[in-house]
Amino acid sequence: MRSKEALRLRILELCDTHGLTVSGLCALCGITQSTLNNLMCGRNNSLTVSTIQKICDGLEIDLPQFFDSDFFRNLEQEIV
Predict the structure, then answer these.
(1) CB 3.0-4.6 Å disulfide test: which of 29, 35, 38, 53 passes with 44?
(2) How far is Cα 29 from Cα 69, in angstroms, rounded to an integer?
(3) pLDDT reading at 15 higher than 80
(4) 38-47 burial string, b = 16+ CB within 10 Å, else e?
(5) What pTM value is reported for the model?
């Protein structure tokens, strides 16, 4: 699995766990809808750590909890 797919799936998983829509997550975290939509639709090739931190802050989790998922195990090596 590629990293951006892992990020997308993890965000969807966290939304489901917290009973949120992607739109609700944006409102909770102070992230623009377009930023998250671009990621979810594959139009954004990079997600910054500060954006992931905003998601974590909104969900009241820390970065290690965000990345503590099978989605991030055995990621494909990506050459840019």
Answers:
(1) 38
(2) 20
(3) yes
(4) ebeeeebeeb
(5) 0.88
